Amino acid sequence: GYYNHREALPARRFVGGKVPLGLKRKGLRIVVTGGAGFVGSHLVDRLLARGDSVIVVDNFFTGKKENVMHHFGNPNFELIRHDVVEPLLLEVDQIYHLACPASPVHYKFNPIKTIKTNVVGTLNMLGLAKRVGARFLLTSTSEVYGDPLQHPQVETYWGNVNPIGVRSCYDEGKRTAETLAMDYHRGAHVEVRIARIFNTYGPRMCIDDGRVVSNFVAQALRKEPMTVYGDGKQTRSFQYVSDLVEGLMRLMEGEHVGPFNLGNPGEFTMLELAKVVQETIEPNARIEFRPNTEDDPHKRKPDITKAKELLGWEPKISLRQGLPLMVSDFRKRISGDHSSSDA
Ligand code: NAD
Ligand code: UDP
Ligand code: UDP
Questions:
Q1: Of 39, 198, 261, best ligand 1 pocket probe by most atoms within 8 Å of the beta carbon
Q2: How far is the CA of 12 from the centre of ligand 2 (A)?
Q3: What is the membrane topology here (predicted)?
Protein backbone atom coordinates (compact mmCIF):
# COMPACT_ATOMS: atom_id res chain seq x y z
CA GLY A 1 0.00 0.00 0.00
CA TYR A 2 0.93 3.60 -0.51
CA TYR A 3 0.43 4.42 3.15
CA ASN A 4 2.30 2.73 5.96
CA HIS A 5 -0.31 1.24 8.25
CA ARG A 6 2.00 1.31 11.26
CA GLU A 7 2.25 5.06 11.04
CA ALA A 8 -1.49 5.43 11.44
CA LEU A 9 -2.79 6.77 14.72
CA PRO A 10 -5.65 4.79 16.23
CA ALA A 11 -8.47 7.25 15.79
CA ARG A 12 -11.21 5.59 17.80
CA ARG A 13 -9.84 6.75 21.11
CA PHE A 14 -12.23 5.02 23.47
CA VAL A 15 -13.34 1.80 21.87
CA GLY A 16 -16.95 0.95 22.56
CA GLY A 17 -17.51 4.41 24.01
CA LYS A 18 -15.92 3.36 27.33
CA VAL A 19 -14.21 6.44 28.69
CA PRO A 20 -11.44 5.84 31.24
CA LEU A 21 -12.36 6.97 34.77
CA GLY A 22 -11.63 10.61 35.44
CA LEU A 23 -11.81 11.61 31.78
CA LYS A 24 -14.78 13.48 30.35
CA ARG A 25 -16.18 11.98 27.13
CA LYS A 26 -14.65 13.97 24.32
CA GLY A 27 -16.64 14.60 21.18
CA LEU A 28 -15.92 12.45 18.16
CA ARG A 29 -13.93 13.66 15.17
CA ILE A 30 -16.14 13.20 12.16
CA VAL A 31 -15.59 13.75 8.44
CA VAL A 32 -18.60 14.52 6.28
CA THR A 33 -17.72 14.29 2.57
CA GLY A 34 -20.21 16.29 0.53
CA GLY A 35 -20.99 18.21 3.72
CA ALA A 36 -21.61 21.49 1.88
CA GLY A 37 -24.48 19.90 -0.04
CA PHE A 38 -28.16 19.60 0.73
CA VAL A 39 -28.27 16.51 2.99
CA GLY A 40 -24.69 16.91 4.25
CA SER A 41 -25.19 20.42 5.61
CA HIS A 42 -28.23 19.33 7.66
CA LEU A 43 -26.22 16.39 9.02
CA VAL A 44 -23.35 18.74 9.95
CA ASP A 45 -25.78 20.95 11.90
CA ARG A 46 -26.91 17.96 13.99
CA LEU A 47 -23.39 16.60 14.62
CA LEU A 48 -22.06 19.97 15.77
CA ALA A 49 -25.12 20.53 17.96
CA ARG A 50 -24.35 17.18 19.61
CA GLY A 51 -20.86 18.42 20.51
CA ASP A 52 -18.73 16.59 17.96
CA SER A 53 -15.97 18.05 15.79
CA VAL A 54 -16.78 18.07 12.11
CA ILE A 55 -14.54 18.32 9.06
CA VAL A 56 -16.42 18.96 5.84
CA VAL A 57 -14.67 17.78 2.67
CA ASP A 58 -16.30 19.12 -0.48
CA ASN A 59 -15.29 20.15 -4.01
CA PHE A 60 -18.29 22.53 -4.30
CA PHE A 61 -19.60 20.90 -7.48
CA THR A 62 -23.18 21.16 -6.25
CA GLY A 63 -22.49 22.19 -2.66
CA LYS A 64 -22.25 25.79 -1.47
CA LYS A 65 -20.33 27.59 1.27
CA GLU A 66 -23.61 29.30 2.13
CA ASN A 67 -24.95 25.97 3.40
CA VAL A 68 -22.34 25.75 6.18
CA MET A 69 -21.31 29.40 6.55
CA HIS A 70 -23.19 29.72 9.84
CA HIS A 71 -20.53 27.46 11.40
CA PHE A 72 -17.54 29.58 10.35
CA GLY A 73 -15.81 30.67 13.56
CA ASN A 74 -16.89 27.55 15.44
CA PRO A 75 -13.63 25.91 16.57
CA ASN A 76 -15.24 22.47 16.20
CA PHE A 77 -15.86 23.08 12.48
CA GLU A 78 -13.45 22.85 9.53
CA LEU A 79 -14.11 23.16 5.81
CA ILE A 80 -11.68 21.64 3.28
CA ARG A 81 -11.98 22.16 -0.47
CA HIS A 82 -10.99 18.75 -1.76
CA ASP A 83 -12.08 16.31 -4.43
CA VAL A 84 -12.53 12.77 -3.02
CA VAL A 85 -11.18 11.32 -6.28
CA GLU A 86 -7.79 12.37 -4.85
CA PRO A 87 -6.33 10.65 -1.75
CA LEU A 88 -6.82 12.38 1.60
CA LEU A 89 -5.00 12.05 4.92
CA LEU A 90 -6.89 12.83 8.13
CA GLU A 91 -7.24 11.34 11.62
CA VAL A 92 -10.90 10.79 12.46
CA ASP A 93 -13.32 8.46 14.26
CA GLN A 94 -16.19 8.40 11.76
CA ILE A 95 -16.65 9.08 8.05
CA TYR A 96 -20.03 9.96 6.60
CA HIS A 97 -19.40 9.56 2.86
CA LEU A 98 -21.96 11.64 0.94
CA ALA A 99 -19.81 13.23 -1.78
CA CYS A 100 -21.59 12.63 -5.11
CA PRO A 101 -24.08 14.68 -7.10
CA ALA A 102 -27.59 13.36 -6.44
CA SER A 103 -29.83 15.08 -8.98
CA PRO A 104 -30.06 13.40 -12.41
CA VAL A 105 -29.35 16.75 -14.09
CA HIS A 106 -26.10 17.09 -12.12
CA TYR A 107 -24.91 13.50 -12.30
CA LYS A 108 -25.54 13.28 -16.06
CA PHE A 109 -23.65 16.57 -16.63
CA ASN A 110 -20.29 14.76 -16.51
CA PRO A 111 -21.00 11.03 -16.21
CA ILE A 112 -17.32 10.02 -16.20
CA LYS A 113 -16.68 12.31 -13.26
CA THR A 114 -19.77 10.85 -11.53
CA ILE A 115 -18.58 7.28 -11.80
CA LYS A 116 -15.04 8.26 -10.75
CA THR A 117 -16.49 9.98 -7.69
CA ASN A 118 -18.53 6.89 -6.82
CA VAL A 119 -15.77 4.37 -7.41
CA VAL A 120 -12.40 6.07 -6.84
CA GLY A 121 -13.84 8.53 -4.30
CA THR A 122 -15.40 5.73 -2.26
CA LEU A 123 -12.22 3.64 -2.55
CA ASN A 124 -10.17 6.52 -1.15
CA MET A 125 -12.51 7.13 1.75
CA LEU A 126 -12.54 3.39 2.56
CA GLY A 127 -8.74 3.40 2.40
CA LEU A 128 -8.78 6.29 4.87
CA ALA A 129 -11.24 4.43 7.13
CA LYS A 130 -9.00 1.36 7.06
CA ARG A 131 -5.83 3.32 7.82
CA VAL A 132 -7.22 5.12 10.88
CA GLY A 133 -9.77 2.53 12.04
CA ALA A 134 -12.73 4.85 11.49
CA ARG A 135 -16.32 3.74 11.05
CA PHE A 136 -17.56 4.42 7.51
CA LEU A 137 -21.11 5.18 6.36
CA LEU A 138 -22.00 5.11 2.66
CA THR A 139 -25.01 7.03 1.38
CA SER A 140 -26.20 4.72 -1.35
CA THR A 141 -29.51 5.13 -3.10
CA SER A 142 -32.83 3.57 -4.02
CA GLU A 143 -31.49 3.79 -7.59
CA VAL A 144 -29.61 0.55 -6.94
CA TYR A 145 -33.04 -1.08 -7.47
CA GLY A 146 -33.20 0.49 -10.96
CA ASP A 147 -36.63 0.20 -12.56
CA PRO A 148 -37.79 -2.26 -9.90
CA LEU A 149 -39.76 -5.40 -10.69
CA GLN A 150 -40.56 -5.82 -7.01
CA HIS A 151 -42.81 -3.36 -5.17
CA PRO A 152 -42.27 -2.03 -2.57
CA GLN A 153 -38.50 -2.55 -2.57
CA VAL A 154 -36.97 -4.70 0.18
CA GLU A 155 -33.21 -4.65 0.88
CA THR A 156 -32.92 -8.27 -0.30
CA TYR A 157 -34.07 -7.32 -3.82
CA TRP A 158 -31.12 -7.20 -6.24
CA GLY A 159 -32.61 -4.68 -8.62
CA ASN A 160 -33.22 -4.19 -12.31
CA VAL A 161 -30.55 -1.81 -13.56
CA ASN A 162 -29.42 -0.93 -17.08
CA PRO A 163 -25.60 -1.14 -17.00
CA ILE A 164 -25.06 0.92 -20.17
CA GLY A 165 -27.68 3.65 -19.88
CA VAL A 166 -27.48 7.37 -19.18
CA ARG A 167 -28.25 6.83 -15.47
CA SER A 168 -25.69 4.03 -15.07
CA CYS A 169 -22.85 6.31 -13.94
CA TYR A 170 -24.95 6.90 -10.83
CA ASP A 171 -26.85 3.59 -10.34
CA GLU A 172 -23.96 1.31 -11.17
CA GLY A 173 -21.52 3.70 -9.48
CA LYS A 174 -23.44 3.39 -6.22
CA ARG A 175 -23.77 -0.38 -6.65
CA THR A 176 -19.98 -0.60 -7.00
CA ALA A 177 -19.58 1.68 -3.98
CA GLU A 178 -21.70 -0.77 -1.97
CA THR A 179 -19.53 -3.65 -3.22
CA LEU A 180 -16.36 -1.80 -2.20
CA ALA A 181 -17.81 -1.09 1.25
CA MET A 182 -18.69 -4.76 1.78
CA ASP A 183 -15.28 -5.93 0.54
CA TYR A 184 -13.46 -3.53 2.90
CA HIS A 185 -15.75 -4.77 5.66
CA ARG A 186 -15.09 -8.46 4.98
CA GLY A 187 -11.49 -8.15 3.82
CA ALA A 188 -10.05 -5.29 5.87
CA HIS A 189 -12.46 -5.33 8.85
CA VAL A 190 -13.61 -1.76 8.33
CA GLU A 191 -16.81 -1.04 10.29
CA VAL A 192 -19.14 -0.06 7.48
CA ARG A 193 -22.76 1.11 7.35
CA ILE A 194 -24.83 1.29 4.17
CA ALA A 195 -27.91 3.48 3.73
CA ARG A 196 -30.11 3.27 0.63
CA ILE A 197 -31.72 6.67 0.51
CA PHE A 198 -35.03 7.31 -1.25
CA ASN A 199 -36.00 10.71 -2.72
CA THR A 200 -35.43 13.39 -0.08
CA TYR A 201 -36.45 17.05 -0.08
CA GLY A 202 -36.19 20.08 2.18
CA PRO A 203 -34.59 23.49 2.68
CA ARG A 204 -31.20 24.12 0.97
CA MET A 205 -31.95 21.96 -2.06
CA CYS A 206 -30.49 23.62 -5.14
CA ILE A 207 -33.34 25.62 -6.62
CA ASP A 208 -32.58 24.62 -10.19
CA ASP A 209 -31.26 21.10 -9.69
CA GLY A 210 -34.01 19.61 -11.84
CA ARG A 211 -35.40 17.25 -9.23
CA VAL A 212 -39.14 17.05 -9.18
CA VAL A 213 -39.94 18.59 -5.79
CA SER A 214 -37.55 21.51 -6.24
CA ASN A 215 -38.80 22.04 -9.81
CA PHE A 216 -42.51 22.08 -8.90
CA VAL A 217 -42.00 24.33 -5.86
CA ALA A 218 -39.79 26.81 -7.74
CA GLN A 219 -42.15 26.81 -10.73
CA ALA A 220 -45.24 27.41 -8.59
CA LEU A 221 -43.50 30.23 -6.70
CA ARG A 222 -42.36 31.84 -9.96
CA LYS A 223 -45.87 31.46 -11.38
CA GLU A 224 -44.58 29.20 -14.14
CA PRO A 225 -46.33 25.95 -15.10
CA MET A 226 -45.21 22.81 -13.29
CA THR A 227 -43.48 20.47 -15.75
CA VAL A 228 -44.78 16.91 -15.47
CA TYR A 229 -42.62 14.43 -17.40
CA GLY A 230 -44.40 11.62 -19.24
CA ASP A 231 -47.97 10.89 -18.19
CA GLY A 232 -47.23 11.81 -14.56
CA LYS A 233 -48.39 8.40 -13.32
CA GLN A 234 -44.91 7.26 -12.27
CA THR A 235 -44.51 7.20 -8.49
CA ARG A 236 -41.92 8.25 -5.91
CA SER A 237 -41.83 8.33 -2.12
CA PHE A 238 -40.70 11.64 -0.65
CA GLN A 239 -38.82 11.92 2.63
CA TYR A 240 -38.21 15.11 4.60
CA VAL A 241 -34.52 15.78 5.22
CA SER A 242 -34.62 15.79 9.05
CA ASP A 243 -36.07 12.26 9.03
CA LEU A 244 -33.19 11.13 6.82
CA VAL A 245 -30.53 12.74 9.01
CA GLU A 246 -31.98 11.02 12.09
CA GLY A 247 -31.85 7.69 10.22
CA LEU A 248 -28.24 8.21 9.10
CA MET A 249 -27.10 9.00 12.64
CA ARG A 250 -28.92 5.99 14.12
CA LEU A 251 -27.37 3.78 11.48
CA MET A 252 -23.86 5.11 12.16
CA GLU A 253 -24.23 4.69 15.94
CA GLY A 254 -25.93 1.28 15.74
CA GLU A 255 -24.42 -2.17 15.37
CA HIS A 256 -25.84 -3.15 11.98
CA VAL A 257 -24.02 -2.96 8.66
CA GLY A 258 -27.13 -2.81 6.49
CA PRO A 259 -27.99 -2.05 3.78
CA PHE A 260 -30.99 -0.17 5.17
CA ASN A 261 -33.69 1.55 3.16
CA LEU A 262 -34.17 5.08 4.50
CA GLY A 263 -37.24 6.65 2.98
CA ASN A 264 -40.83 7.62 3.58
CA PRO A 265 -43.22 4.88 2.43
CA GLY A 266 -45.87 7.45 1.43
CA GLU A 267 -46.12 6.95 -2.34
CA PHE A 268 -47.27 9.66 -4.77
CA THR A 269 -47.70 9.91 -8.52
CA MET A 270 -46.13 13.06 -10.01
CA LEU A 271 -49.67 14.33 -10.68
CA GLU A 272 -50.54 13.84 -7.00
CA LEU A 273 -47.35 15.65 -6.01
CA ALA A 274 -48.35 18.55 -8.29
CA LYS A 275 -51.70 18.67 -6.47
CA VAL A 276 -50.02 18.88 -3.05
CA VAL A 277 -47.83 21.72 -4.35
CA GLN A 278 -50.97 23.50 -5.62
CA GLU A 279 -52.60 23.10 -2.18
CA THR A 280 -49.49 24.43 -0.45
CA ILE A 281 -48.50 27.32 -2.73
CA GLU A 282 -50.92 28.29 -5.42
CA PRO A 283 -54.26 26.58 -6.15
CA ASN A 284 -54.21 27.96 -9.70
CA ALA A 285 -50.70 26.71 -10.55
CA ARG A 286 -50.85 25.13 -14.00
CA ILE A 287 -49.45 21.80 -15.18
CA GLU A 288 -47.57 21.30 -18.45
CA PHE A 289 -46.69 17.87 -19.82
CA ARG A 290 -43.18 17.20 -21.19
CA PRO A 291 -41.62 14.10 -22.73
CA ASN A 292 -40.11 11.82 -20.11
CA THR A 293 -36.38 11.22 -19.69
CA GLU A 294 -34.66 7.97 -20.65
CA ASP A 295 -34.76 4.99 -18.26
CA ASP A 296 -37.06 6.76 -15.81
CA PRO A 297 -38.08 4.22 -13.11
CA HIS A 298 -41.87 3.69 -13.10
CA LYS A 299 -42.33 3.33 -9.37
CA ARG A 300 -40.45 3.48 -6.15
CA LYS A 301 -41.48 2.91 -2.55
CA PRO A 302 -39.33 1.69 0.32
CA ASP A 303 -40.13 -1.22 2.56
CA ILE A 304 -38.68 0.09 5.83
CA THR A 305 -39.43 -2.90 8.07
CA LYS A 306 -35.71 -3.56 8.58
CA ALA A 307 -34.89 -0.01 9.71
CA LYS A 308 -37.92 0.01 12.01
CA GLU A 309 -36.92 -3.24 13.66
CA LEU A 310 -33.15 -2.86 13.90
CA LEU A 311 -32.68 0.92 14.15
CA GLY A 312 -35.98 1.86 15.81
CA TRP A 313 -36.35 4.43 13.05
CA GLU A 314 -39.23 5.61 10.94
CA PRO A 315 -40.00 8.92 9.27
CA LYS A 316 -42.17 11.36 11.23
CA ILE A 317 -42.89 14.12 8.70
CA SER A 318 -45.47 13.63 5.96
CA LEU A 319 -45.25 15.36 2.58
CA ARG A 320 -48.03 17.78 3.55
CA GLN A 321 -46.13 18.72 6.74
CA GLY A 322 -42.67 18.91 5.18
CA LEU A 323 -43.46 20.76 1.98
CA PRO A 324 -44.37 24.09 3.66
CA LEU A 325 -40.99 24.05 5.49
CA MET A 326 -39.19 23.79 2.18
CA VAL A 327 -41.45 26.36 0.53
CA SER A 328 -40.60 29.07 3.04
CA ASP A 329 -36.87 28.54 2.37
CA PHE A 330 -37.40 28.59 -1.42
CA ARG A 331 -39.61 31.67 -1.14
CA LYS A 332 -36.83 33.58 0.66
CA ARG A 333 -34.18 32.54 -1.86
CA ILE A 334 -36.31 33.07 -4.96
CA SER A 335 -37.45 36.52 -3.91
CA GLY A 336 -33.91 37.76 -4.44
CA ASP A 337 -32.35 37.18 -1.04
CA HIS A 338 -29.71 34.62 -1.95
CA SER A 339 -28.37 34.13 1.55
CA SER A 340 -28.51 30.60 2.89
CA SER A 341 -31.40 29.40 4.95
CA ASP A 342 -30.98 28.81 8.63
CA ALA A 343 -33.70 26.18 8.64
P1 NAD B 1 -25.94 17.38 -3.20
O2 NAD B 1 -25.60 17.43 -4.62
O3 NAD B 1 -26.66 18.53 -2.58
O4 NAD B 1 -24.65 17.10 -2.31
C5 NAD B 1 -23.53 16.38 -2.78
C6 NAD B 1 -22.28 17.10 -2.27
O7 NAD B 1 -21.13 16.36 -2.69
C8 NAD B 1 -22.14 18.50 -2.83
O9 NAD B 1 -21.80 19.39 -1.79
C10 NAD B 1 -21.01 18.37 -3.85
O11 NAD B 1 -20.30 19.57 -4.05
C12 NAD B 1 -20.18 17.27 -3.23
N13 NAD B 1 -19.36 16.52 -4.19
C14 NAD B 1 -19.74 15.98 -5.37
N15 NAD B 1 -18.70 15.37 -5.97
C16 NAD B 1 -17.63 15.51 -5.14
C17 NAD B 1 -16.26 15.11 -5.21
N18 NAD B 1 -15.78 14.43 -6.26
N19 NAD B 1 -15.44 15.45 -4.18
C20 NAD B 1 -15.90 16.15 -3.12
N21 NAD B 1 -17.19 16.56 -3.01
C22 NAD B 1 -18.04 16.25 -4.00
O23 NAD B 1 -26.79 16.04 -2.98
P24 NAD B 1 -27.56 15.50 -1.70
O25 NAD B 1 -28.99 15.41 -2.05
O26 NAD B 1 -27.17 16.23 -0.48
O27 NAD B 1 -27.01 14.01 -1.65
C28 NAD B 1 -26.03 13.60 -0.71
C29 NAD B 1 -25.77 12.11 -0.86
O30 NAD B 1 -26.99 11.37 -0.64
C31 NAD B 1 -25.26 11.70 -2.25
O32 NAD B 1 -24.29 10.69 -2.10
C33 NAD B 1 -26.49 11.12 -2.92
O34 NAD B 1 -26.14 10.17 -3.88
C35 NAD B 1 -27.23 10.51 -1.75
N36 NAD B 1 -28.67 10.41 -2.03
C37 NAD B 1 -29.45 11.53 -2.01
C38 NAD B 1 -30.81 11.42 -2.32
C39 NAD B 1 -31.73 12.62 -2.30
O40 NAD B 1 -32.90 12.48 -2.64
N41 NAD B 1 -31.28 13.79 -1.91
C42 NAD B 1 -31.35 10.17 -2.65
C43 NAD B 1 -30.51 9.06 -2.69
C44 NAD B 1 -29.17 9.20 -2.36
N1 UDP C 1 -6.18 6.41 0.87
C2 UDP C 1 -6.47 7.71 1.24
N3 UDP C 1 -6.23 8.08 2.52
C4 UDP C 1 -5.71 7.25 3.46
C5 UDP C 1 -5.43 5.93 3.08
C6 UDP C 1 -5.68 5.53 1.78
O7 UDP C 1 -6.95 8.49 0.45
O8 UDP C 1 -5.54 7.68 4.60
C9 UDP C 1 -6.43 5.97 -0.51
C10 UDP C 1 -5.21 5.39 -1.19
O11 UDP C 1 -4.57 6.40 -1.94
C12 UDP C 1 -5.75 4.31 -2.08
C13 UDP C 1 -7.12 3.98 -1.53
O14 UDP C 1 -7.37 4.90 -0.46
O15 UDP C 1 -5.93 4.80 -3.40
C16 UDP C 1 -7.25 2.58 -1.02
O17 UDP C 1 -6.33 2.43 0.04
P18 UDP C 1 -5.83 0.99 0.50
O19 UDP C 1 -4.81 1.19 1.56
O20 UDP C 1 -7.00 0.15 0.84
O21 UDP C 1 -5.23 0.37 -0.83
P22 UDP C 1 -3.77 0.44 -1.45
O23 UDP C 1 -3.20 1.79 -1.17
O24 UDP C 1 -3.03 -0.64 -0.75
O25 UDP C 1 -3.99 0.18 -2.90
N1 UDP D 1 -40.10 14.78 -12.94
C2 UDP D 1 -41.16 15.53 -13.42
N3 UDP D 1 -40.99 16.87 -13.61
C4 UDP D 1 -39.83 17.51 -13.33
C5 UDP D 1 -38.73 16.75 -12.82
C6 UDP D 1 -38.91 15.39 -12.66
O7 UDP D 1 -42.26 14.99 -13.68
O8 UDP D 1 -39.76 18.73 -13.51
C9 UDP D 1 -40.29 13.34 -12.71
C10 UDP D 1 -39.20 12.43 -13.26
O11 UDP D 1 -39.51 12.05 -14.59
C12 UDP D 1 -39.25 11.24 -12.32
C13 UDP D 1 -39.70 11.85 -10.99
O14 UDP D 1 -40.24 13.13 -11.31
O15 UDP D 1 -40.24 10.32 -12.74
C16 UDP D 1 -38.58 12.01 -9.99
O17 UDP D 1 -37.50 12.65 -10.62
P18 UDP D 1 -36.24 13.24 -9.84
O19 UDP D 1 -35.32 13.77 -10.85
O20 UDP D 1 -36.70 14.16 -8.76
O21 UDP D 1 -35.60 12.00 -9.06
P22 UDP D 1 -35.29 10.48 -9.48
O23 UDP D 1 -36.14 9.69 -8.54
O24 UDP D 1 -35.66 10.25 -10.90
O25 UDP D 1 -33.85 10.34 -9.24
A1: 39
A2: 19
A3: Single-pass type II membrane protein
Q: Where are the alpha helices (DSSP H) in 258-298?
A: 270-280
C-alpha to C-alpha distance for 131 and 36, rounded to whole angstroms: 25
How many other C-beta atoms are found inside a 10 Å radius of the C-beta of residue 107? 25
Q: Please tell me the distance between residue 334's alpha carbon and the centre of ligand 3 in angstroms.
A: 21
Model pTM score: 0.92
Grouping H, G, I as helix, E, B as strand and the rest as coil, residue 308 is helix
Tens-place pLDDT, residues 157-178 = 999 999 999 999 999 999 999 9
Q: Which has the closest alpha carbon to 79: 95, 64, 92?
A: 64
How remote is the C-alpha of 333 from its chain's centroid?
Answer: 22
Ligand 1 proximity of 199 Cβ (cutoff 6 Å):
yes
- Give, using CA atoms, the residue closest to atom 23 of ligand 3: 199
201 in catalytic set: no
DSSP helix/strand/coil, 223:
coil
Find out whether 121 and 176 touch, Cβ atoms under 8 Å.
no
Spatial distance between the Cα atoms of 153 and 224, rounded to a whole number of angstroms: 34
Q: Are strands 267-269 and 235-237 parallel, antiparallel or unpaired?
A: antiparallel
Ligand 3 atom nearest the C-alpha of 232 is 7
Closest protein CA for atom 16 of ligand 3: 212
* 306 and 260 Cβ atoms separated by less than 8 Å: yes
28-86 confidence digits (pLDDT tens): 999 999 999 999 999 999 999 999 999 999 999 999 999 999 999 999 999 999 999 99
Cα 62–chain centre separation: 13
Contact 250, 312 (CB under 8 A): yes
**Distances, alpha carbon 153 to alpha carbons 23, 157, 162, 178, 191, in Å:** 46, 7, 17, 17, 25
Angle at 143 between CA 140 and CA 148, to 5 degrees: 135
